[in-house]
Each structure stands twice: as structure tokens, then as C-alpha cells.
Amino acid sequence: MEYAREQLIEIVSGQMPAKRWKHVEGVMETAVVLAERYGGDKEKADLAALLHDLAKFWPIERQEAVLRDNGLNPELLQHDKQLLHAEVGAFISQRDYGIADPEVLDAIRYHTSGRVGMTKLDKIVCLADYIEPGRDFPGVGRIRELAEHSLEEALIAGFDSTISFLLEKGKAIFPLTVLARNDLIKEMRSSQ
Predict the structure, then answer these.
(1) Which of 31, 40, 161, 174 is the most buried (most CB within 10 A)?
(2) Which of 188, 190, 134, 139 is nearest to 162 (CA)?
(3) In this predicted model, what pLDDT tens digit does every residue of 48-102 receive, in sequence order?
(4) DSSP labels for 4-40?
(5) Helix, strand, or coil (residue 59)
(6) If we measure between CA atoms, which residue out of 93, 72, 81, 67 comes closest to residue 12?
(7) What is the CATH number of the domain that holds 12?
(8) How far is Cα 150 from Cα 53, in angstroms, rounded to an integer?
(9) How many domains does the chain have?
(10) pTM: predicted TM-score of the whole model, two decimal places
């Protein structure tokens, strides 16, 4: 069954506090702006941004059960629980809401961690999540400035910020994030 955008907005906004929904709206707006700026698909950017935090406020036990019961990436269970919602959200978007576009599903799946070989849509949604207007963390202004001229430079700065934060807190770093960062650096070097 296909859902209209308004139905998805109602479904998603009903699964989170108002403050988080405001964040999702900011990510949607920012993703469309970035898609316009960098020649991405605005409709896909809007849809992936709308669904990116679908499972964010589900109980962790429920997210873990969805991962285990559906044969999703088991490696996520060994890392920070904040990573689970992206994989679960992509799966639920497909299974329950009829999202069939693999590019949209991947943008949801990798919006938190990034990945090697990020597509333009992956980059747009991941970066929009970092820099939407409601975000306020040290260095976000610089990432927003970088986003004015380079998706890749801005994303590298975003990943650097995440990695620095995790190092400061003595937390483990999800390997895919480091690989995504390094791949973006390699991509930038090869395009110069």
C-alpha cells in the first residue's frame, strides 16, 4: 500500500515528541535546499528526510527485536544503540509503508553512520540531519558554511565532529563512520 505524504507525516509525527518532529521538519527543509543546490532529487530527499527518524523513539528492545527477527545487520547490536533506528527505520519504511526505492531506503539506513560509496542522496540526507536549523553544537556553523560549496567537505567536518565527540566521551566509534569519512576524503582527492 502506498501512503500519501500527508499520511506519512501524520504517522511519523505521531511516533515522536513534538521537539523531535520539529527536527524532522528541519531535516526535510534542509534536504530539499541541499538537493536544489547540488542537483539531487528533491522529492526523494524530502521523503528520506521525512522517514529518517521513524523508529528513533521506539523502545530499544523493540528496535533490537526488529533487527534480530528480520535478519538485519547484526553488527549494529554490538555498537551504540543510537545507530539502531536508522536500519530499523529503513526496514519499516519498506515493509509497512511501501517505500520501494532502494536509494531512499539507503539514505534512511545510512543517515547516522554514512557508508563507503555514499550516493548524492545519502550525502544530502546525512548532512541535512547534521545542519538543520535546530541543531546547535560546537562547530555546526562551520559545517553549515562548508555546505554552501561542498557536500563532501561538510560531511567530512560532520563526521570529524561526531568522531571527536565520541573520543572525548570515551565511546566506541562505529567502524562504518570512519570508513565513510575516509572514502569521502579519497573521493575529494580523486576529483581534484
Answers:
(1) 31
(2) 139
(3) 999 999 999 999 999 999 999 999 988 898 888 999 999 999 999 999 999 999 9
(4) -HHHHHHHHHTTS-HHHHHHHHHHHHHHHHHHHHHT-
(5) coil
(6) 93
(7) 1.10.3210.10
(8) 25
(9) 1
(10) 0.95
